[in-house]
Amino acid sequence: MNQNNSNTLKATPLKDLHLQLDARMVPFAGYEMPVQYPSGVKKEHLHTRQHAGLFDVSHMGQIIITGKGVAKALETLIPVELESLGVNKQTYALLTNDHGGILDDLMITRWSEDCFFLVVNAGCKDRDLKYLRDNLDGFNIDHMENQGLLALQGPAAEQVIKDLAPESQEMLFMSGSRVNLAGIDCYITRSGYTGEDGFEISAPPEFSEPLARKLLSYERVRAAGLGARDSLRLEAGLCLYGHDIDAQTTPIQASLLWSISKSRRSDGEKSGGFPGAEIIFQETMHGPTRKRVGLKVEGRAPVREGAELVNKKNEVIGIVTSGGFGPTLDAPLAMGYVKTEYSKIGTEFGAIVRGKVHPVFVQKMPFVPNRYYRG
Amino acid sequence: MKKAPSGLKYAASHEWVRDEGDGTATIGISEHAQESLGDVVYVELPQLGMSVVAGEETGVVESVKAASDIYAPISGEVIAVNALLEDEPEIVNGSPYDSGWFFRVKISDPTELHNLMDTEEYESLAAAD
After folding, report:
1. In Å, how far is B65's CA from the nearest CA of chain A?
2. pTM of whole model > 0.90?
3. Cβ–Cβ gap B86/A300 under 8 Å
4. Tens of pLDDT along B98-110?
5. Cβ separation of B38 and A36 shorter than 8 Å?
6. Number of domains in chain B
7. Does A322 lie in the same domain as A214?
8. Residues 22 through 81 of chain B touching chain A, CB cutoff 8 Å
9. Domains of chain A: total
10. Domain containing A320 — which CATH number?
C-alpha cells in the first residue's frame, strides 16, 4: 500500500481549481497540493517578484484562541510580547520546547483583547493543537479546519486588494484587517513567505474558490505552486520548518534571536517564563556551537539539502538544510548550519556535491532584498 | 506535448540516442523528461574521453527543485559534449532533441542499440508514466 495514495490525502477548497489549471499535484503534509502549474517554477517565481503570484496555502493550520487573559497564557509557551501587541497587529513567533528547541514557527495576529489568530505549519498542526489544548487549560481553541488561506504575493498585490476593497484602510507589513473582498468576508494580513509585499487571505471554505478565481482574473496575478513558494522563501532567507529549524534546533543556533521579543530576553522586564528559556539564555551568553547561515555557491551547480560542508582540511564543519536554484539571483543558493567559527560573512569553505568540493561563501541573508511595505 | 522525431532510440530512463551512422551516437533527454523535470538550471556532463557504460550514471540534470541522474543508454567513449549547456542549460527545455543534446559517444557495441525502444514504444511508455 502506498501511504501517499491520493485517496488518503486531504484536499484544500481549491483542489478543483488547481486541476482545472492543469497543476502538477503532489502529496505534501498530508494534502494534495500544486507543486507547479504548466508555466513552471521559474516563471511562477519571476512573475511573483515582478507582478503577483497566488498561492494556495490552505493546508496550513488556522487556529483561533479565545479567553480572558489569553495573551499572558500564550506568553508561557511563546517567547514574544503579546500583552502589548496591538489589535490587528501580527508577529512571527516560535513555539519552544523544554530543551530550547523549536516545536514550530508561526504567525500570531491579535484579533481582540482576548482573541488571537494563529497560522501554523501544515505538518505540525495536529501536534500543535494537542500541545496548545494540553497547555492552555480553560481557553477556547478553535481549529478552522477547512478554512481557505490564499497568499497573494508580489508588487501588484496591493493594487488588487485596493481594487477589491476600496474602503479598506491602509495596512502596513505585519498588520491585519477584516475586509470584504468581492463580497466575501475575509481576514487579511499584510505578510507572507516570499520576501515581497503581499497579503495572506483567510476565507471561508465555500468562498475560497470564487475568491481565488476573482484574484486570478486580474491580469497581473498568476497561480504559483509550492515549488515557487520554496525558491522564493529561500531567496528571502526564510526558514522552512522540518528542514532549517526543528525540535533539535534552538532559536540562537537558527539565527532567530530577533524573533524573541526584547521584553522576554534575559535582560527584559518580562524575562523568560517560556519553555527552554534558561537554555536559550545560556546559549545567548556563551554563544551557540553552530549557526544557521546563508551560502553563496560558486559556479552553477545547485547544492542541495543534506550536502556536507567541509573546511580546507576536508573536515566536516556543517550541513546544508535548504538549497536550490534562485531564479531571481539566477544562481544557486543555500542555507545551512556551520560550526560558529565558520559563520562570519565572507568565510569560504566547501560543499560536497556528488563527491566533488564546490566553493561556497557565507552570505548575509536575505539573498534578494525584501520589499515589505512599512509605510 | 511535442512529438519525438522519428529515427531515435530511447532508454526507459528517458534518454534518447541518435545513431549518426559513422560509428558515433548523440545522446540527450526526451521531451517527456524535460517536461517532468521542469526548468533545467544545471547539467553535469561526462568528461571528454571518458568511457560510459550502458545503464550507468553518467551525469546529472538539475531543475529548480531537484536533481536527476542521467544514464548512458549505450556504451562508448565520450567524444563530444554540448558546451552550450554550461551557460544556457534551459535549452534542454526548449530544444531537447536538437540544440539541447548532451554528449556524443564513439559506440563500443552497436548491438546495444537493439536493446533500446523505438519512438512508438517509447511514447506509449511515456504516456503511461
Report:
1. 6
2. yes
3. yes
4. 999 999 999 999 9
5. yes
6. 1
7. no
8. 38-39, 41-42, 44, 60, 62-67
9. 2
10. 2.40.30.110
